[in-house]
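Go through the following before class.
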Amino acid sequence: MRWNWCIATLLLVAAPVMVHALEGRARVIDGDTLVVAGETVRLHGIDAPESKQSCESAGGGRWACGRWASAELVDIVGRSELRCEGRERDRYGRLVAKCYLRGADIGEEMVLRGAAHAYRKYALDYVDAEKAAFIAARGLWQGDHLPPEAYRAGQAPQPQPQPKPASGCAIKGNISKSGHIYHMPGQRDYAATRITEAKGERWFCSEAEARAAGWRAARR
């Protein structure tokens, strides 16, 4: 009897905590929050920009990335039936859950689209999806932006100084959906192209150097 009690206790400790499951159509609140079957659900493992948040575009301008993220979640969810598997309650009383549409993980799709960050503070489930979105410069990753958590903390966006090229090295090596492309001074998109070294972008001193590094020439 004692061994049976110990085994039962271990199984209870090892079992994942499931608050409860929900099924039904969803109403989108913002890029990471839904209402399903009358319950407010915070998507587990992702962090989307706030509704009023803006981000930098590929061309250096500002765009309403928060509203866009909400629209992306609406596009994914539509009017289909969802199943949400609850994990816990957050400090606001919302159910933190993974939600699925016909077996597909909605949180993962949001991160793959570049519409949300992998929320590493709480989970590492979507780190690979975030890397894929970053490399492809999708959504939020097309330009500089403040992480949603920092935005909520009230940190004002700090302008990112454009790194200066070494003397004579004025060719811009840019990474975009089109691949690794270098822009020459005088080309149409040269002035609008920003170099973000944290993304692996760089300056080149000659076309030969750029081509040797795997970049190709811009068409315009």
Summary: The chain has six helices and 14 strands. The helical segments are 2-14, 65-77, 106-112, 127-135, 148-152, 207-212. The mean pLDDT is 87. Residues 2-14 form the longest helix (13 residues).
